[in-house]
Amino acid sequence: MACAALVLRALTTSSDRRTLAVRHLPGTMVAMAWSKNTSAGDPIVSHSGAVLSRPVAFRFALDLTAEQSQRCFMFAGARRLAYNHHLARVKKNLERRAKELDAGLGCDELTPSPSWSKVSFINEFNAYKTGRTKDSPVNADGTRGLAWREEVSADVFECASVDAAAALKNYRESATGARKGRRVGFPRFAAKHRDTPRFRLRSKCRPGETAPIRFVGARTLRVPKLGELRISGSGKKIARMIAAGRFHVYSASFTYSAGRWFVALTGVAAELHPARRSLKGRHPSTVGVDRGVKSLLVAADASGALVASFEEMNTLRCAEQRLKRANQALARTKPGSAGRKKAKARLARLHGEIARKRRHVTHEASLALARGTRRLALEDLHVAGMVRNRHLARSLSDAALGELGRQLTYKAAWYGTELVLVERFYPSSKTCSRCGSVKEQLSLSTRVYACEHCGLELDRDVNAAINLARWPGARAATASPKTAAA
Ligand SMILES: [Zn+2]
Q1: Is the distance from CB of 174 to CB of 183 less than 8 angstroms?
Q2: For 81-96, how does the pLDDT look when each residue is reduced to its tens digit (9 = 90+)?
Q3: What is the rounded CA–CA span in Å between residue 66 and residue 72?
Q4: What distance in angstroms lies between residue 146's CA and the mean position of ligand 1's atoms?
Q5: In terms of pTM, does the model score above 0.70?
Q6: 176-204: b (≥16 Cβ within 10 Å) or e
Q7: CA 420 to ligand 1 center in whole angstroms
Q8: Using CA atoms, how far apart are residues 462 and 467, in angstroms rounded to an integer?
Q9: Contact between residue 321 and residue 19 where contact means Cβ atoms under 8 Å apart
Q10: Distance 9 CA to ligand 1 centre (A)
Q11: Rounded (10°) CA dihedral 330, 333, 334, 340
Q12: What residues contact 38, with CB distance under 8 A and at least 6 apart?
């Protein structure tokens, strides 16, 4: 597993090398930030008096019984049904209005368009599932509505309605120009063969009350209508945080990926303890971080000292052989056969394993940097644009640049580390870190920076990291709240 081993050259001295043996257990708990802006409005204060202002999500793999897993699939199917129901309803209305317009009807004569608000979507689906709308399904016994609705948590339908309303809002705002960025089309229907099985449940309660979604043991999560779910790994830390009023769960998002169910508990947490935000003992000067293609990242300071380097993170390339074999095995199977089903599952597991490894290494790297430095200078890469370039796409996605930038952004905020975003067109790679001369061209395949003027020969990523640490604009630009990955 040499490829997965992460080499961290810690804090300036090269003798202080240690290898972090990263275990890629599926049950590894990962804390991450989620993007909802909670700064608007009053912060939540927990029953213990802690101010909960830090949006966090904790993700666990689940060890479900066959019955629980089946139930989760049922919930996911219910979500898909509700989501598609809203899209179909809106689409039908839009098409009808377009036809009427073509037929020469005036604007006030058109079929009225239904409200696209979250609340009206929730109400509409409630009416639909209980048989109170014209298009409610009719059952064999003559009753109307969804016969199985009681078996699924009502929250699944509500969250799906909220999701559909949000997707349609993006579409409308993009069409009218109110939304920036790439054009958003009409939301795609959640097809069974394509959509990741997933659903969300909210944990509606005030801080301090008994939460509907809660830990009843270190490894047991209690969820309404699903019962007691066993998590892989330990939830002790989170359970303790909840009990102490330092974490409040908003919702639980369930996803099925690579043959396994996962749950992410999303909520708000208290700030880290001041001792963990202390800048004492951290690297004293600005540290430039170059997010390389070959290595995951290289960090160096303005004096030219290498601070940390996370190398050879090409997990995808490393697993390529195994992926290739799994793909070949799949190609040899007959369509519709049991063998194909098995080969497909194996391939999915492999992809899942790679994604997990990548996520883990990225988290380790971003955490080490956010905790070990006072000030980070990071290139403001236009990742979305780069990944569209097909030749670069694979390496770049592999290095998960955008994800790294995102993680560094929120972890820096957690640990009180200042983050400087270096403007995109600053030639950090092409500049010589010794004499300052700038090269016209530097191809991506050139791994060593060789200066024609002063004869400097240095690893290209280290050279770039040093330049980032020295970025002259750093003094003016203080930590920007926008994410580095945007
Ligand atoms: Zn030079």
Answers
A1: yes
A2: 999 999 999 999 999 9
A3: 10
A4: 73
A5: yes
A6: eeeeeeeebeebeebeeeebebbbbbbbe
A7: 25
A8: 9
A9: no
A10: 25
A11: -60
A12: 53, 55, 268
